[in-house]
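Note to self: keep these together.
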Amino acid sequence: MKTALLMTLMTLLLVMVGDFAGGQQGMVIMLIFSLGMNFFTYWNSDKMVLAQYKAHQVDEHSAPALYGIVKRLAERAKLPMPKVYIIDDQVPNAFATGRNPEHAAVAVTTALMNYLSPKEIEGVLGHELTHVRNRDILISTVAASLAGVITTVSRFALWFGGGRDRNNNNPIASILLLILAPIAAALIQMAVSRSREYKADEGGGELCGNPNYLADALEKIFQYSTRRTMQNATEATAHMFIMCPFSAKDMQKLFSTHPSTQERVSLLRRQAEEMKRQGKLEK
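Structure:
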């Protein structure tokens, strides 16, 4: 319900900006454009992001350990086996993509495989497969696309003027709309992404059997990822990774799509204690 509300607000923002930029006609065009864009990203977002990061597919012969972890977790989650990819990058990170569980893919960097233990990798992949199970990838991709369009159209209208009848248009309100709309879109995208990250952490902790595995992994990834930015990292895809792919220097914390690592780890430790009391914690 929360995600649906946020996505509705994002679409309304786009329509309002379209209304200013081109009146009623512009509003209709933006609504149609947003629907068309959502349809396009539904079918192509996975291919685009995998190509952007130059990910190469592996199987049980080329990467038996990694493939085996994914297969075991997918069976436990009752998910179809996703495609598995590796990204040659010196920053440990991972993401999942795909329009639905039947067309899903998970990708990890070479650094993640080198720096993390098998149990920690299991925690990370449990997080990513929870995203797949919850269909978060599609939601986050559409949110990012809408936010990008709102920002682009707002800037265009602000510099070149809107198409509405100026006699019926409050110039101060219009300027506020065009300035605040991109900020509101970014905040909504952030809220969508962060709420899904907390859910994926919780589900990943359950899926791997011990939330401490994921907590330990997040602490290690954070230590490495804050020092340097991943190759080919963009703001449009930052929300997909388990950790922001930008370094602490490059990352704009105000609009970070990821919750605080410290808070995520704290919640996972608490979850582990609760699972231990219930006798469900694996060692």
